[in-house]
Amino acid sequence: MTYLIVENVSKKFCRNLKQSLKYGVQDIITEITGKNRNSDKLRNGEFWALQNISLQLKPGEALGLIGANGAGKTTLLRLISGLMKPDTGCIKVRGRVAPLIALGAGFNPILTGRENIYANMSILGLSTQQITKRLKDVIDFAEIDTAIDAPVQTYSSGMAARLGFACAVHIEPDVLLIDEVLAVGDIKFRMKCYQKLAQLREQGTAFILVAHNPHVVLNVCESSIYLAKGNIITSGNTADVIRAYEDDLNMVTYSESESIMYLPAKPESESMGVDITSLCFKDNQSEIIPTLISGQPANLAIHCKAYQNVDNLNIGVIISALSGQNERILYITSASDNELIQIQSGAVEIQMQMPYCCLLPGLYNAKLYIKQGVQSLDIVQSFRFAVKANQVISQSLFYQPHTWKVTNTPSS
Amino acid sequence: MKQEIIYTPLSSLRHPKKLLREMWQDLLASRELAWRLMVRDINSQYRQSLLGITWAFLPPIVMATGFTLANQANVIQVGKTDIPYPAYVTFSTALWQTFVEALNSPLQAVIQARPILAKVNFPREALIIAKLGETLFNFAIKIFLIIALFVWFQIPVTWTIILAPVAIIHLILLGTLIGVLLAPLGLLYQDISRGLTLITGFWLFLTPVIYPVPKTGIFGTLVNFNPVTPLLVTARELATTGNLSQSTAFWIVSIITFIGLILTWIAFRLAMPFVVERVG
Q: Which residues of A touch B123 (CB under 8 A)?
């Protein structure tokens, strides 16, 4: 069973308002007279906002839509929700589609929160009986217990957004279209939203998620589509798609199709004595691993070429999240671990061993340096790697290695 | 297995059976939503207001006072009316206003709901039905005024008064027909709402609201060709004398209204996605 099939769908728009309105009237007249709109051809001043888009969505699947502003992401969501007709191709929907596009659509500022919940949720397609049943959950989720009978115009913008989100997720649809709305509220509420989304997903709800922050998409969706100017550039595994997107954004210039990063060899005259020649991650069997997995062992293998014996090497690894705000996540140095690294001249492999990778799924950047005392011997500015997860841990901030133990005390 | 919905570029008229089935389903689906929207609109309409429902009474009273004074001073000459002139004007104005409300409300509804229309796919019929309900509600309030008027002027009524609501509903449906026809266009072009205000102002003078039905002259012909005339006159006559002067015209206009309403409904459904696409 498939909830949604989109086949070769295109949509055209017109930038000039007067012309656009005129075409609108033309289209209405041809539609009413039952004639063919010839919608597969562009009229003067029109352009393709979406072209030949195909995708499928099965229950419990989450699909990310990535792309710059104006790439056609919202247009695609609006076509799927049936707000407008496609110009070519067809869209088949099975089940209830709820848009999380319209947070608080139809909120009337004069009416109370409670009244607005009823109005909003019935616009989204619930019967009064169903709303009454879910009312308490909605109020609890939005955390506006005390303000529920006050007019919505007295709410803070965060409260109104929370109420809107609470209404939308309690519709419990088959397909949820989420358009960059998860940026509302404080961090605590955002975590709660993700939690709710994960819960819905376990119940079989399928998602299409649009977000500017690729980190969000990476945490929620396994597969993604990268749209640019109305065309699908790449689709598939989210980490790959995001890489393609970020490459296009010129965020990173180097391709990560290989899991080993080789650094150009330096002539001995430029070397400070120790050069990093390559970087990669290995597992405990010394096999190279292309992507790290949260909770699994990962060893950062640093290959060096040493021209001399060094006995007090200090290696620093600084890891920051590529997506999001580029926050620094880890700062590890061998010196602060009181580890004196001794190497002999020749080829050396130094491993920074992590029995558990505690990073969350995402893309990361590692900066490395090798120092001897205060003197810097070599620096690698950027080694990018991706982390995936085998289980859903997106609601956590990091991976905590753990086991469970049960001790039964038999009753005498 | 859930029902599959398919969106294609082809005109929905290509599958008339499917279209009619969807129309019926949406009509059923919009009952509760329409009720919600109506309750919401009526609530918010009166909540931020001191005079509240008095606003339903005031316009006919003000209008009647003005014209009665003008009539008494012989500034305007109206012929003889079946019932005392102040009652005649107040009652007719209430009917006329109900018609204008029904005429304007579909356009108002879609303009107000524009942000939601652009984001949520709900049965659009609900907007129209909610406004229809609001019009009926507002008229129901005016009924108290009319009853007070009938008692005050001791206007005799006949049993036909129980049929008057039928004529009033036809009057409201005629307004809705025109309103729904204009609503999608009005969302695209602001000219429609401006033009509507202008036209209803002029239309009032072609309708026997402040004067009895004229029998002669070009004016008489114009008034008799006005589709509102037979509906409004019949409603008034049913409520008072019971002698119907325009029953044939009444049925002609009514039948045209019913057929027109269904056709307009289809047109409205077909047009809305294109309108939403352009203004959303």
A: none
* Residues A307 and A380 occupy one common structural domain: yes
Provide the domain count of chain A: 2
The pLDDT tens digits along chain A (412 residues) read 788 999 999 999 998 889 999 999 999 999 888 888 888 888 888 999 999 999 999 888 889 998 888 888 888 998 998 889 999 999 999 888 888 765 666 678 888 889 888 888 888 888 889 999 999 999 998 888 888 899 888 888 778 888 888 888 888 888 888 887 666 667 778 778 878 888 888 888 888 988 766 667 777 788 899 988 889 988 888 877 877 776 676 444 344 455 788 888 888 888 888 889 999 999 899 888 888 888 889 999 999 999 888 888 899 999 988 765 567 889 999 988 888 888 898 899 999 999 998 888 777 888 999 998 888 888 888 888 888 777 665 567 788 888 899 999 988 7
- Residue pair A80/A97 in contact (Cβ under 8 Å)? The answer is yes
Are residues A59 and A183 part of one domain? yes
Q: Please, which residues bridge with residue A318 across strands? A: A331, A367
Stretch (H or E) spanning A149: none
Q: CA of B8: which chain A residue's CA is closest?
A: A90
**What is the C-alpha to C-alpha distance for residues A332 and A313, in angstroms, rounded to an integer?**
14
One domain for residues A208 and A288:
no
A127 and chain B: CB distance < 8 Å anywhere? Answer: yes
DSSP class of residue A38 equals -
Of A178, A213, A248, which closes a domain? A248
Q: pTM of the prediction? A: 0.74
**A346 within some domain:** yes
In what helix (H) or strand (E) does residue A268 lie, and over which residues does it extend? none
Q: Answer yes or no: do A280 and A176 share one domain.
A: no
For residues A121 and A184, membership in a common domain is answered with yes
Query: Would you state the structure tokens that stand for residue A401, as one six-digit string?
Result: 């290695």
**Prediction ipTM score:** 0.85
CATH number at residue A86: 3.40.50.300
Angstrom distance (rounded) from CA A316 to CA A302: 11
CA distance B73 to B178: 37
| Domain enclosing residue A52, as ranges | 4-248
- Residue A252 has which token pair? 């990173």
**Is residue A180 domain-shared with residue A73, that is, in the same domain?**
yes
Name chain B contacts of A21, Cβ cutoff 8 Å. Answer: 188-189, 278
**d(C-alpha A76, C-alpha A54), whole Å:** 10
Return the residue of A nearest to B271 by Cα. Answer: A28
Cβ neighbors of A253 (< 8 A, separation 6 or more) are A247
Looking at the structure, tell me whether residues A44 and A84 fall in a common domain. Answer: yes
Beta carbons of B5 and A94 less than 8 Å apart: yes
**A203 and A121, same domain (yes or no):** yes
Cα–Cα distances in angstroms (integers) from residue A306 to residues A69, A138, A377, in the given order: 48, 63, 10
What angle in degrees, to the nearest 10, is found between the helix axes of B247-279 and B164-188? Answer: 30
